[in-house]
Amino acid sequence: MNSMSIQTEFDFILPKGFVDTEGKVWNQGVMRLATALDEISVMEDPRVQINPAYLPVLLLAKVICRLGDQEFVTPNMIENLFASDLTYLEDLYMRLNCVETVEKGTVCPKCSHRFQVKIAPL
Fold first, then answer.
1. Is this model's pTM higher than 0.85 or not?
2. Which of 14-23, 28-37, 45-54, 100-109 has the weakest average pLDDT?
3. Could you give the CA distance from residue 73 to residue 62 in angstroms, rounded to a whole number?
C-alpha cells in the first residue's frame, strides 16, 4: 500500500507581533490545517451567534498551535493582536484551507490606488 504524507502545520511570522502581558513581543508561530469540526464548532459558539465578526477570532485560536512560546492560544490572545497581524492570519488561514483562488481588495501603499489581487492557495 502506498502511504502519502501531507503537511498539516505551517510556520508563520507576524508583521508586528503579539505583545504578551509582560511586554515581550512574539512574532513566530505555527498554524495547522483546519478540520470540519473546527469550523462547525465555532459556528455554534454563542459569541459568534451574537456577533458573527467574532468567528475569525475563535477559529484562529483553534488552528494556531503556537504563538511565541505559548503552545495554547486563547481567543483573548487573538483579540489583542494588532489589526495587521489579524489580517495576516486570516489571509494565511484562507490560503491554507481553501482550494480555490481567493480575490482580495488591497491598496497601494505609495499611491493609495485600490485594486483586486488574486491569491492562490498554498
1. no
2. 100-109
3. 7
| 41 and 35 Cβ atoms separated by less than 8 Å | no
In this prediction, residue 67 carries a pLDDT of 95
Check: CB of residue 35 under 8 Å from CB of residue 43.
Answer: no
User: Which strands sit side by side in the sheet containing 64-67, from one edge to the other?
Assistant: 9-19, 25-32, 64-67
Cα 30 from chain centre:
10
> What CA–CA distances, in Å, run from 37 to 5, 16, 34, 40, 67?
21, 30, 8, 5, 22
pLDDT per residue as tens digits for the range 46-74: 999 999 999 999 999 999 999 998 889 99
Rounded alpha-carbon distances, angstroms, from residue 19 to 9, 23, 88: 23, 6, 16
Domain residue ranges of the chain, discontinuous segments joined by +: 9-119
Residue 36 exposed, middle or buried by CB count within 10 Å (0-12, 13-18, 19+): exposed
For residue 107, give the C-alpha cell.
491598496
In percent, the amount of the chain with pLDDT more than 90 equals 68
